[in-house]
Amino acid sequence: MSHILRVIGEMFPDAHCELIHDNPFELTIAVLLSAQCTDETVNKVTATLFKKYRSPADYLAVPQEELEQDIRRIGLFRTKAANIQKLCRILIDEYEGQIPRAHEELVKLPGVGRKTANVVVSNAFGVPAIAVDTHLDRVSKRLGIAKPEDSVLEVEKKLMKLVPREQWTDTHHRLIFFGRYHCKAQNPACPVCPLLDVCKDGQKRMKPATRPTSKENKTKLNGKG
């Protein structure tokens, strides 16, 4: 694992959260919106959204239908609009309008799962955490850190065990960058990958197609194959 950490550290030393935000509240909204959606699309939507809505009260001051239209470019926008308003109501009623710092409190909020809570505590409050998104899940399994059948939670637990706690957040960002810009779902950069030596998935991809033996060719020519 130390080899993987060293390589991704050299490849992406400045890896970071790419969701644009100015405070914990905006980050929470942005991560909630990012489910099944790219960070790029979220940033385009929040560029205007965060100018219109600056506090939990602002989100509750409009009908849900208006908020839906404001985030319409985001997948599952109706469900997310409903969750945002429910979340904002809870923040006002129970947390004086502030995002709670504790992970166990964050996951109680509508639309906030374990991944979202991990992103918020690590990026907004500086608490080491590993949030497993689709990129990190894919990369962990390709590199043999986790098994193909492992759940997201199992992947997270294995990484937490293998990676020193003080490196959790940096490793989270670097593995995401590695998956987003190098080890992509389609057409990963295996030929130039510095981790090909530990990636069985990549090694399989790089193997040339096996040519049929002369005996196999003869069988096919005789119509027996």
Automatic annotation (TrEMBL):
User: Which PROSITE patterns does the UniProt record give?
Assistant: ENDONUCLEASE_III_1 (PS00764), ENDONUCLEASE_III_2 (PS01155)
- Location of the HhH-GPD domain: 33-181
Q: Which CDD domains match?
A: ENDO3c
Give the residues the record marks as binding [4Fe-4S] cluster: C183, C190, C193, C199
Q: Does the keyword Metal-binding apply?
A: yes
- Does the keyword field hold Ribonucleoprotein? no
Q: What class of enzyme is it?
A: lyase
EC number assigned by the record = 4.2.99.18
Q: Which InterPro entries match?
A: DNA_glycosylase (IPR011257), Endonuclease-III-like_CS2 (IPR004036), Endonuclease3_FeS-loop_motif (IPR003651), Endouclease-III_FeS-bd_BS (IPR004035), HhH-GPD_domain (IPR003265), HhH_base_excis_C (IPR023170), HhH_motif (IPR000445), Nth (IPR005759)
Known SMART domains for this protein?
A: ENDO3c
How is its cofactor bound, per UniProt?
Binds 1 [4Fe-4S] cluster.
Q: Which UniProt keywords apply?
A: 4Fe-4S, DNA damage, DNA repair, DNA-binding, Endonuclease, Glycosidase, Hydrolase, Iron, Iron-sulfur, Lyase, Metal-binding, Nuclease
Q: Where is this region: Disordered?
A: 204-225
Q: Which domain of life is it from?
A: Bacteria
Functional summary from the UniProt entry: DNA repair enzyme that has both DNA N-glycosylase activity and AP-lyase activity. The DNA N-glycosylase activity releases various damaged pyrimidines from DNA by cleaving the N-glycosidic bond, leaving an AP (apurinic/apyrimidinic) site. The AP-lyase activity cleaves the phosphodiester bond 3' to the AP site by a beta-elimination, leaving a 3'-terminal unsaturated sugar and a product with a terminal 5'-phosphate.
HAMAP family (alphabetical): Nth
- The name under which this protein is listed is Endonuclease III
